[in-house]
């Protein structure tokens, strides 16, 4: 069975959203309990911290504790918030929904919406590329691009999209390199703004759900069953091919075998899947996911520590916030004082 992307694993609502595709765009309802509904993504903008998730809910907070619902033009499951700067950003989601803001999240305009009953398109991640370009990726090889700061979007077709894999995470490194991670251990790299992609050999055939950049141009990969790998140099990765990604196995290579491909596996501290990550100002990273697992990665990306667990929830987004951390998931957003 095909593994679905992380946004479809989080809540019963998300699992049924594929069947609830509405051919007509409808605005989200203003709901008294919107702050308690599932939240899948967080971002900082000019008007505070923004959150988005179930039923097209868009929320804003100035202190990470009190949240106000904003008007949203679409009633869909939102999966990712991204801002190019303090004023310009977009939220992405199911049915290839893209809603953008030019005033720091105060107001939002629908820019793309393409529901389909046959294979409902879902955007899992996106990145602004420079002043006006955007790239968005998602399920079944979905890739969309914009060259007018999100005003219009076109489907991108290339050797990577032809594989039809779920693209769960997208990140642009400081030197402009683009990295995609996804199902079946997929890891792909582009050095020309997404025009061409090189597939890397993978140490693991389970899904990767997130990417965090490492100093020096490497990446931290995390995902299914608590797996975390560090890639210190993308230049040293071995090339891969689609046939090498085994869809029937999730065990992966042992640590020595992974090292020959250019990966360093971090000793796991749990088998809970990790869906979200953020760099910490004081050094290191914080990862979070299923069963309320919060995992601390040290500043050298060598060791993991289980910082906390809240089994009654699933976390899908992490954002450092002053002297604390915001964790978003199946029960809204909660703030932890201090860094775990």
Q: What's this, in brief?
A:
By secondary structure, this protein is mainly beta. It is 4% helix and 39% strand.
Would you kindly provide a written description of the structure presented here, covering whatever features stand out?
The longest helix has 6 residues, at 12-17. The model is unreliable at 1-21 (pLDDT under 50). It is built from two helices and 27 strands. The chain has a domain at 1-156: 7 Propeller (Methylamine Dehydrogenase, Chain H). It is mainly β and 340 residues long. The radius of gyration is 18 Å and the shape is globular. The chain is 4% helix and 39% strand. The chain has a four-stranded antiparallel β-sheet, with no helix packed on it. A four-stranded antiparallel β-sheet has the order 5-6-7-8, with no helix packed on it. It has a four-stranded antiparallel β-sheet with strand order 9-10-11-12, with no helix packed on it. The two termini are 36 Å apart.
Question: What is the element layout, followed by pairings?
Answer:
Layout: H1 12-17, E1 39-45, E2 48-53, E3 58-61, E4 68-70, E5 78-83, E6 89-93, E7 98-101, E8 109-112, E9 123-129, E10 133-138, E11 143-146, E12 154-155, E13 167-172, E14 178-182, E15 187-190, E16 198-199, E17 208-214, E18 218-223, E19 228-231, H2 255-260, E20 264-265, E21 274-279, E22 285-289, E23 294-297, E24 304-308, E25 315-321, E26 324-329, E27 332-337
Antiparallel strand pairs: 1-2, 2-3, 3-4, 5-6, 6-7, 7-8, 9-10, 10-11, 11-12, 13-14, 14-15, 15-16, 17-18, 18-19, 19-20, 21-22, 22-23, 23-24, 25-26, 26-27
